[in-house]
Write a structure and sequence with these properties.
single chain; four-stranded antiparallel beta sheet
């Protein structure tokens, strides 16, 4: 069953008749996957106690999921385009459900790490196929609104993970945060099988196995280096070696994709300014959101003294603002009213302003929650406007038959931008903190524990708060720069498109009735070997008419030279 038809005038027909029900099913599945990106953070004390997990074990429990998912996103998107998005969406739900069951029943750290990696495989399939199906079942007019709702769930899942995890742990044991995924996955699986139409690339290109292997190794190595940087140090071998391997392998991936006839990722997409602009903006949105939440949780717990659940509740205004504004249709309306460049500029400016407000108005260790609340609301409003515009720009710049690859690119950028935000802003925080206080401890809790007096503890806390403010301001500057860059590239692309389409529109427009014009003439006649022949020609000047052309030739080769008289 085709999800989209094209009418006789070349326009996209109305989307799938059950498209909004399909979107609801997709959003439930998407939310489950995204919650698992952050829900485990609040379970660290329980896991340490009940599984006797070391710090290294905890790190791998958290990172195994995101490493596998980010490494497989491009491959999963390409496979969905080739083999069918519905098939791989259903497969993703099955794998995610099995992985959740194994994680909830794990009896050791190794079992939980392996289960989380399996969940990452299912998560990669779900992250790519959900957005690809949205593009297939909605027509161009409704697609922006649908993508805005999809982006809303992204933000909600990312920001509400700690809150939901805290509530679950208050009433159940740590395994419940995984087992709750199973009934959701089962319901979503039944709904997908019954309602979602199958769609895939009709050309059926050969699978690019070499490209899949190279992209998976390269992205996994790069993301691992970014994740490991704050713990091991950016100049350590544990960071530099995987970073070098990742960059080298990704370079080989690009060269391979340029050489083969059916690449997994067509590198010519990067010649499109719309695509490049949307890519740049998506990275900086993820940079700002991922980095800021990483800093905010530390500010709330280490500086203001809140527990994990209390900290999760106090970051909720960001997600709630995104949800409320996008459910009200603000993001889609802003794209229509301002255009994609204008919406991105507005959204990224609000996001940047929110980061600055948190840095300047939170008041360090003596501040109140009011400044942070204002900043979170501004950030949520910015994400509600900018994220749908950029996701739609990425998907619109890629042929519809490659929607899975487009979704894979969008997901990869989100993972990369989030990791980069945590790494860069975390490095700024550490640099500022250690510049203000001379401590040998590697973390704030260790430094506070080693402090010899209350005055020294206050000085260390103040230094940490100063480092947080500095890193938030750096993040605000980079987000604003990224927004302006993305908007400028998109505006240039729109201007170039308008210059190309203007002459075509002029050629297609009819001339005045009864007008006379000179245009191209196609003449038919017989030329003598060395003489002149006269034939009847059809001319297309400023309008369409029929005229008489004279063709002259030598040696039997006739050359057109007539003028067309329009009736």
């Amino acid at each position: 069953m085709a999800a989209m038809a094209v009418d006789s005038g070349g326009r996209e027909a109305q989307g799938h008749p059950r498209r909004w029900l399909i979107l609801g099913v997709i959003l439930v599945a998407q939310l489950t996957v995204l919650l698992d990106n952050t829900v485990l953070n609040v379970a660290i004390p329980s896991l340490t106690r009940e599984l006797d997990a070391s710090s290294s074990d905890i790190q791998w429990m958290i990172n195994a999921y995101s490493l596998v998912q980010s490494g497989l996103l491009l491959t999963a998107g390409s496979a969905a385009d080739r083999y069918g998005r519905k098939k791989l969406l259903a497969a993703g739900l099955v794998l995610f459900g099995i992985g959740s069951l194994a994680a909830g029943l794990a009896q050791s750290s190794g079992q939980l790490i392996a289960a989380r990696a399996g969940m990452g495989v299912g998560g990669a399939l779900l992250m790519t196929t959900t957005l690809a199906v949205v593009v297939q079942v909605f027509d161009r007019d409704e697609r922006v609104k649908a993508i805005a709702l999809w982006s809303t769930v992204n933000s909600l899942g990312f920001a509400s993970g700690p809150l939901i995890g805290g509530i679950m742990l208050d009433h159940f044991w740590w395994g419940a945060i995984f087992l709750i995924n199973i009934p959701v996955a089962l319901v979503a699986l039944v709904a997908v099988v019954r309602m979602v139409p199958e769609s895939k690339d009709p050309r059926g290109d050969r699978p690019d196995l070499v490209g899949a292997v190279l992209s998976t190794i390269g992205m996994t190595a790069v993301v691992y280096a970014i994740i490991s940087g704050p713990d091991h140090g950016w100049t350590s071998g544990q960071v530099l070696v995987p970073a070098a391997v990742g960059v080298l392998v990704l370079g080989l991936f690009v060269l391979w994709e340029l050489r083969i006839p059916h690449p997994m990722l067509d590198m010519h997409f990067f010649r499109d300014r719309r695509f490049v602009g949307a890519v740049a903006g998506a990275v900086f949105v993820a940079f700002g959101m991922g980095g800021s939440l990483y800093l905010l949780t530390q500010h709330l717990q280490f500086v203001l003294g809140y527990g994990p659940l209390e900290a999760g509740v106090r970051t909720a205004p960001l997600a709630l603002t995104v949800v409320v504004l996008n459910l009200a249709g603000l993001g889609a309306r802003m794209v229509v009213k301002l255009g994609t460049p204008g919406a991105i500029t507005t959204g990224m400016s609000l996001l940047s302003g929110g980061l600055a407000a948190i840095a300047l108005l939170s008041g360090g260790t003596d501040g109140t929650y009011g400044g942070m609340f204002l900043g979170l609301v501004m950030m949520g409003a910015g994400i509600a406007v900018a994220a749908p515009a950029m996701a739609n720009a990425i998907m619109s710049a890629i042929p519809q038959e490659k929607a899975g690859v487009g979704a894979g690119i969008n997901g990869t950028l989100a993972e990369f931008g989030t990791g980069l935000g945590v790494a860069v802003l975390g490095a700024v925080l550490s640099s500022r903190f250690f510049a203000l206080v001379a401590v040998s401890a590697a973390s704030l809790p260790a430094a506070l524990a080693a402090a010899g007096s209350q005055a020294e503890r206050e000085r260390i806390a103040d230094a940490f708060a100063s480092g947080l403010a500095t890193s938030q301001l750096v993040g605000a500057a980079w987000v604003l720069f990224g927004g302006l860059l993305a908007a400028a590239l998109l505006r240039r692309a729109e201007r170039a498109d308008s210059l190309v389409s203007a002459p075509a529109a002029m050629d297609a427009s009819p001339g005045p009735a009864g007008g006379t014009g000179t245009g191209r003439t196609t003449s038919t006649g017989t030329a003598t070997p060395a003489g002149t022949s006269t034939g009847t020609g059809t001319g297309t000047p400023a309008d369409t008419g029929t005229g008489v052309g004279t063709a002259q030739g030598t040696g039997g080769a006739a050359r057109e030279g007539g003028a067309a008289q329009a009736p």
